[in-house]
Write a structure and sequence with these properties.
- With 423 residues, this protein is an alpha+beta fold.
- A hairpin with a 3-residue loop joins strand 13 and strand 14 (211-214).
- Helices cover 31% and strands 21% of the residues.
Length: 423
């Protein structure tokens, strides 16, 4: 983070001026048509997210509509569905969708300061007040340009941007750590599910349908190590009631096997009696998002499950539930699910088919050991995600304080560094 010293500012310097965004910035208006054959990098809304960094790009000839020409340093702002807060500073010259505004600074405003201003909570609130349309809500430059804010002198803009850039860099480094650890986890998962715990196995054998596995592991089918599977309740969902269990539906389960925290529902208790989940129960989606799985844990609170889910309950003397769930995260399981889907048919895997899922099953002690190793990595990832979330919250608070002048950068403590940050 920048070495700038922050101090409270009871009053705003007379050098700060109240201006409108349109007085100190503008938008690129030059466009090219699809048939002009431009090959510059193309940025669409799909290449933008709320982190302030572009997620790759395509080529302009992939778009069949007009494109807006932008320059390196411009702030790209997604005016379609502005609630998604898609904003990024361009690191190259290119063209973008006309659903994106390419905003550039003039001589009174530096690009890095403009970047943080456009991403600020205050500008977002202003943008949302000007949204029109319901199916395709959007804001406009006509509305955005009226946004009023306090503009500091150029030297203080640079100092403020340097502090906020340093926080962004810390967040980016944290994202890199998370991505690297997730890659490590995926590689480790694959190794543990096929080779076992390192150093514990010296002999392996070929098993039809499973490939090479440790000699001490047993090939089984999911149905052999679980009680008879059971389909979920057919009751409709209703608004969530704290006095009732949560009603778990396919759409409540994320791709990585957790419950979503929004759109939580309950069901008529008389119609879901007997469908209560117990710790270790494993749910599978039988249609729609076929193959999606979820392991119920007590910390998820009381839950019952809906009809398009199938419950498997492991026999504890032979199968550790967490290991069975980990098996559904591996590459073998993904390939198996793909092989079970019938071409031209509605995607569906029923209870009998799930029961036939091949599993290379270690002794229960090794199942638990494998789960413990991967749980340790997952804990590390979650801790880093928490740090990232804390950094993002701090960034929003610091940005609001600096951009409004409530807190000032003490440039006297930064001799030689007052102009830090990109211009």
């Amino acid at each position: 983070m920048s070495s700038a010293v922050l101090r409270g500012a009871p009053t705003i310097s007379a050098a700060w001026r109240l201006v409108r965004l349109g007085e100190v910035s503008g938008i690129r208006q030059k466009q090219i048509k699809p048939n002009e054959g431009d090959t510059r990098p193309f940025v669409g809304l799909e290449n933008m997210n709320s982190s302030g960094v572009l997620n790759g790009h395509g080529t302009s000839d992939e778009s069949i509509s007009n494109k807006t020409i932008f320059s390196e340093g411009d702030i790209l702002y997604g005016k379609l569905r502005p609630n998604l807060r898609k904003v990024a500073r361009a690191s190259f010259d290119g063209v973008c969708s006309t659903d994106i505004l390419a905003i550039h600074a003039n001589g009174k405003l530096i690009g890095s300061f403009l970047n943080h201003l456009i991403r600020s909570a205050r500008l977002h609130s202003h943008a949302m007040r000007g949204v029109t349309g319901t199916r395709m809500p959007r804001t406009s430059w006509t509305h955005l340009r009226s946004f009023r804010f306090l503009l500091p002198p150029l030297s203080e803009q640079r100092a403020i941007a340097a502090v906020l850039d340093s926080i962004d860099e810390a967040i980016e480094r944290t994202d890199e750590v998370i991505a690297a650890t997730e890659c490590l986890r995926d590689a480790l998962l694959q190794e543990l599910l096929t080779r076992g715990i390192p150093g514990q196995h010296s002999e392996y054998r070929e098993v039809p349908g499973l490939g090479t596995i440790p000699a001490t592991w047993t090939p089984v089918r999911l149905g052999q190590v679980c009680d008879a599977p059971r389909y979920g309740a057919s009751a409709p969902a209703r608004p969530f009631d704290l006095s009732l269990p949560r009603y778990v539906r396919i759409t409540d389960i994320t791709d990585d096997g957790y419950l979503r925290r929004h759109d939580v529902r309950s069901a008529d208790p008389k119609r879901v009696e007997g469908y209560e989940l117990e710790a270790g129960d494993l749910l599978f989606a039988r249609s729609g998002s076929v193959g999606r799985s979820y392991l119920y844990r007590y910390e998820d609170g009381p839950c019952v499950y809906a009809g398009y889910l199938i419950r498997f309950r492991a026999m504890p003397e032979v199968a550790y539930p967490r290991f069975l769930e980990l098996w559904t995260r591996g590459s073998f399981y993904r390939k198996w699910v793909a092989s079970m889907l019938r071409v031209g048919a509605q995607p569906n895997i029923n209870a009998t088919e799930y029961s036939s899922l091949p599993i290379a099953l270690p002794p229960t002690s090794e199942q638990r050991a494998i789960a413990a190793i991967l749980d340790g990595v997952d804990t590390s990832i979650e801790q880093t995600r928490k740090e990232r979330s804390d950094l993002a919250s701090a960034a929003a608070s610091v940005a609001d304080a600096l951009l409004t002048g409530r807190v000032r950068v003490d440039q006297r403590k930064k001799k030689g560094h007052g102009s830090a940050g990109k211009g």
